[in-house]
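note to self — DONT lose this again. spent like an hour looking for the file last time. sequence + predicted structure for the chain T wanted, 320 res
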Amino acid sequence: MPTPLPKGVTLRGLEVFESLARTGSVAATAGELGLSAPAVSQQMKNLAGALGAELLDNSRRPMTLTPAGRVFLQRTASALDSLRSGHRDLNALDLTELSALSMGIIEDFENEVTPTLAARLAEAMSQCAFRLQTGPSHELAARIAERELDIAICAAPGADPAGSVPHPLVRDPYIVAVPRGTPLDEGLSGLSHLSFLRRDMDQLMGQQIETYLSAMNLNPQHRFEMDSNQSISALVASGTGWTITTPLSLLRAGRFAGGIDAHPLPGAPIERRIVLYATDDWTGPIPQQIATLAGELIETHFLAPGLEAMPWLTGSFTRS
């Protein structure tokens, strides 16, 4: 006979605990789960009481896990993953009636998110001509406006593409990336001994970064302008220069990550928004279902490891 759960252990309590363990903040968890701050605190009190163990150290900011909390989080994460997987299976995409689907995804996701997402979609489309493209955000947004794509996952431009319906996925704040060990005590002006590595100005990131620099009255010296994230990461790691980037982009640094330090961007925060756009002639739940699946993959491969490596991004590097 299965052992019953201790009285007071609820699914909502487990969700609250998982979120608090990740964000370290009652306010962030409340916003993420749509609860009030007192409700979050009460859920944690009930869970800790049911288990007879304190799971979080409330005396520290952000909150940290106790030894018991670290052990229980592993079980909690596994249980919630199983439940979410079951929910996805019950609400599996039904694309059997589609004859064609044309989709574009930004290059940021080509190694982690795109292959899994493409495989899941292919499984659901038995009689569908499926076309998948990768490319920079400005090109994908233009193809949505021209109805050359049905769906695109990309960074949002200043205005949503004409004739599109947005499904927000991720808030991706801008940060500073410098060679490992480089101090930032004097702000960005203290990096004048390094070259500034600029993004290709055709890219939305390049345009947003230039707008920020103008607003801050900064005109850093530079020798390089490029559209390759890996090349920029390699040059930062080698000590050649510094750059302004985002967590999503930095997490793709791969073997160069060990030579890079990340810091908050001085001044008013700026961010790019990753959005799934569907043309407005789509009806039914399919675009939102795809957006939900993409958001879960992004959380697994980017948000969770990103917040673990850069906990100061809590509250800004989040799902929309």
